[in-house]
Protein: NADH-quinone oxidoreductase subunit N
Amino acid sequence: MTVTLDILPVLPELFVALCGLILVLIGVFRSGDPTRPIATLSIMTMVTAMLLVWALGPDRQTGFGGLFVADRFAAFAKQLILLGSILSTALAIPFLEREKTTRFEYPVLVLFATLGMMVMVSANDFMSLYMGLELSSLPLYVLAAFHRDSPRAAEAGVKYFVLGALASGLLLYGISLLYGFSGTTSFLGLARSFEDLSGPPAVGIVVGLVFVVAGLAFKVSAAPFHMWTPDVYEGAPTPVTAFFSVAPKIAALCLLTRVMVEPFAAMTDQWRQVVVALAVISMLVGAFAALTQSNIKRLMAYSSIGHAGYILVGLAAGSVLGVQAILIYLTIYLFMNIAVFAVILSMRRMGRHVEGIADLAGLSKTNPAMAFVMAVLMFSMAGIPPLAGFWGKFYVFMAAIEAGLYPLAVVGLVTSVVAAYYYLRIVKVMYFDEPVESFDHPIGSAPVVAMSVGTMVVLGFTFLPAPLVTGAKAAAAALFPTG
Structure:
């Protein structure tokens, strides 16, 4: 009976792992091209996993001897991760079929990467954290180079692998220092050891914490650890870039939030300085480096760096309101980003995929519906009210102001204004430039559905914010049991 109760919180992850192994066997032994049926089964697996996460209920449960925790925060993060993986997989299959690069390994790799992310956000110990991180990272390295005949994709895969290995090394070194000076890798044990400190923490603890933050900053593509992001976003196949921009980013940011807030709650003053620096540099790089970009995927890479900076503003607050703001921002970001990449995946001319911002010229005349969707999404990403993107930034800046971080909020506002230029430049190109040849009609319903859902969320959040705001608040409170 004890074993059953210990495994129950891990049921969604065990289900995904088992289904992933079965899908590998189906792919190996099935004749013909099994990519589409395996992708369908993979999506069904992730939908079932979402239901299992919901069925576990709101109570905090631990498994595997305290290495794994299932609570409201983990459940909220897992729902976002699974939703991002489902949408990006649905977008990927028509693209891979058109490019004649279908292989059944694609949806299986996405499934195993998603499994690693689910483990990451439920980690309650640095050992389980590292296992989840590597389980998600290894499939991502392969996905980045999935077009093995493309030099750009191969370069993206190698860069991602090398810098990812460096990040893992930094993280492991930080964990070893924390273990050496505290005697434990458990989040609960670390929190208790830091609460009992009468004076300032040992230098080794602080250095270890800095290395841990640096290692995780690579994963969230926060500047100055962002150097892999533009090249990988541009070089990887577009559906892989769409996947990278949502699920792994959400998982890494939620993991960073849990690590900072739970084991290091007593050291908020020490880690806040590092997080504030990461947030400021990320917002500045995201705002200014994107101004000169002509490739839309590369522009979205710098945009993601900027958004990571805004989300870190919420983390710097170190409060329930700050974590609530992070979860609201991530939810809105998920729908905005998937819809934008649905538009990018629809940018095909004469059967060839195009990526230049100039290729959108005159889109309002050749495809008014797509131009409207892209304009709404760009306005939202720029943070223009009353669209959902405005509310995401509103909540993180309010959390910073409540925590007394006024300069950080001011930097956020200024960089938002600067970043608005390159978002509005896309709108200007679509509506005021002379039209070029129209795009091919989108193949399949997935891009249309993704664009429609994303647009509805962006337009409708202002009128129905309560479910997300209430759910995010409950999830954030799970990290502050005494608050």
Remarks:
- Residues 2-477 form one domain.
